[in-house]
Amino acid sequence: MDIKSNYIDLLSDLSKIKGVGKKTSDLLKKKKINTIFDLLWKLPKSYTDRSKSTKIKDLKIEENQTITIIPKKYQFPRIRNLPNRVLCEDETGKIECVFFNSYEGYIKKILPIGKEITISGKIKFFKNKYQLTNPKHVSENASLIKQKHNSYSLTEGLSEKLYNKIIKEVLSKLPNFKEWHSNEIMKNFNNISWNNSIKELHKPENIGKFQEKFYQRLAYDEIFSTFLVNSEIRKKIKKIKKTQKIINLNKQNQIISKLDFTLTNDQNKTLEEINKDLGSSNKMFRLLQGDVGSGKTIVSLLSAFNTVNSGFQVALMAPTEILARQHYLLAKKLFHKDLRIELISGKSSYKDKKDFLSNLSKHKIDIIFGTHAIFQKKVEFKKLGLIIIDEQHKFGVNQRKKLSDKGGKNCDILLMTATPIPRTLTMTIYGDMDLSIIHEKPKMRKPVKTYSKLENKIEEVIKFIKKEIDLGNQIFWVCPLIDESKKIDHESAVKKYDFLTKIFPNKVSLLHGKTSIEEKEIILNNFLSKKFDILVSTTIIEVGIDFPNANVIIIENANKFGLSQLHQLRGRVGRGFKQSSCILMFKSNLSENARKRINILKDSNDGFKISEEDMKLRGFGDILGFKQSGVKNFKLADPIHNHNLFLLAEKEIKRIENTNQDISKFKPLIKLYDRADIINDIA
Ligand code: ADP
Ligand code: MG
After folding, report:
1. CB of 585 closer than 8 Å to CB of 554
2. Domain over 249-438 is classified CATH 3.40.50.1450
3. Which tens digits make up the pLDDT trace of 92-143?
4. CATH for 51-146 (3.40.640.10, 3.30.70.60, 2.40.50.140, 2.140.10.10)
């Protein structure tokens, strides 16, 4: 880093700042400020303008004002509990400074008789006199007082005066970085340097000036550095050389021709992208993104098939056993004679498992399905060529980075997610992967009709589902998520089950958090084979499971869910050819915000659009739990307000990638803004 000795190292500990001892730095650490760099983002919340002074005759009562006065006389009464007073004046009038609990020595020091002193504070008028009680802003040096004084939301024990001093000290010693952005980019920000931007950022009068160039520049730095790191991870994974897979399109097309539907254009396109990666000599690290029901499974199974035909093994991991089993059964149906396919499940006997393991290690199994159990240490493959991970949206960048090392260099990796994210966030959240997107849903599919109903109108809902059941359709009934407590969720599901069984005897089943895995499988399989009609459950109905015959979902207490989550739940239905319905139930009249959300759902079945709206309403951290996934929390940048900066950064990254530009000039930026393990990897 370009640091001269009188500059401060921004990544060093706070104790490197003059005047900061252990006590202060401990206090700051409580606020998650660990380095000097962290300190730069703790911004003033408001300020008091003490810069303009006035004369005593023009003082306004109950306002913060600054005056220059001359102390004339001390009144230190000898009686306890009476305040000390100092009579002061300017050429226009008199004012009294009143001190409670202050030592005479201190008072004499700050207000020496006959000297010109500048003071600032809230002025009172009492018994016909102006008063200033316990003045805090007092100095012989008028310029120290006549300023804008920042206030921060600080932790207890840390004074604003000290904090202002610390910030001032740091700002005066900012390292002098060489500009890392190109001239082209800098034009967008009127060429304001990083240093000057930081200084502007801390000026009290700039609080909340999000549209100013200095602010935009700093937000861009954050976005760009995140994108750059992601891009570098992606490049690094891609550089790993592997044995090319030879794709047998004939065999692939034979399978496709046996399907009872034709693939959508997007399914074909994404399959081609994956095949191209499999056939290349670079390791694949690709995300297949597509809304619920867009048909990702078949694309992934065809890639698995192609990989096997090229002489490799495949592991497909799903988040739950039921989903793993559903994929397994589909694969059996599609490839029955051609491939050796197995499912590792919690139910498999010890002997079976031992056989699996032995067969896997001898390449007697082509595709293995299972939950994360398939990645246990003792599971060894002879020739693993592809790992497919379904519904992975909660993995963060770091988890994915670890994953990219799995399976050795010949192993390609395909992740799948049904979580559409707003366009602006793609690079932030998935920028370390290549992306294949299925936008288009299978034709013939009718959008789910979405309704909202007050809870006390339950009779109407019952009538409606009676009709649906008579038509041979099945129903999901999702019970309220009352709070985080599983116990209450459970009770409400049980109650609803009792209620519904009375109306629909022998037609209802219940699934909740306490149902054992074995029982759950039986219930879901019975639902799949239409042994009952209504499945009451808490929100545990799995992502990804395909129940083509279920066409109604009822979601109670729908206001407890975010938009994207409701969309995911709604995605449980509407996979077949029938018209499906989603009924959102509410306890009481909807708030303005809730009404907005319901209308968005009613108007759109497009997960991408819904996620955009969800972000606008709730902020991006809440989009389906991305917060927990270690997705970067930006300090200034905001995907809604800085939409254009995200796009600008994306364009710039693409340019850098395409022109193979040396990125070493960005090292200081990455070092400042990003996590150390990643820097070490790419620097
Ligand atoms: P998801 O993308 O949510 O994983 P699935 O792969 O489970 O979706 O597919 C949902 C349903 O759509 C399945 O029943 C599947 O058989 C069906 N399907 C997939 N592709 C098509 C298509 N091109 N045309 C019609 N139905 C399809
Ligand atoms: Mg799926």
Report:
1. yes
2. no
3. 999 999 998 888 899 999 999 999 999 999 999 988 889 999 998 899 999 8
4. 2.40.50.140
Is there a common fold for 1-45+163-174 and 249-438? no
Q: Separation of 417 CA from ligand 2 center, angstroms? A: 8
Neighbours of 235 (CB within 10 A): 14
The finding on whether 112 has its CB within 6 A of some atom of ligand 1 is no
Burial class (CB in 10 A: 0-12, 13-18, 19+), 470: exposed
DSSP conformation letters of 524-562: HHHHHTTS-SEEEE-TTPPSS---TTEEEEEETTGGGS-
Pick 1-45+163-174's CATH classification: 1.10.150, 3.10.450, 1.10.12, 2.40.10: 1.10.150
195: left (phi over 0), alpha (psi -120 to 50) or beta: alpha
Residue pair 282/239 in contact by the 8 Å Cβ criterion: yes
Q: d(Cα 555, Cα 515) in Å, to the nearest integer?
A: 20
Angle at 664 between CA 658 and CA 670, to 5 degrees: 100
Pocket test for ligand 1, best of 263, 298, 570 (most atoms within 8 A of CB): 298
pLDDT band, very low/low/confident/very high, at 235 (cuts 50, 70, 90): confident
Q: Is the CB of 317 under 6 A from ligand 1?
A: no
Distance between CA atoms of residues 251 and 274, nearest Å: 16
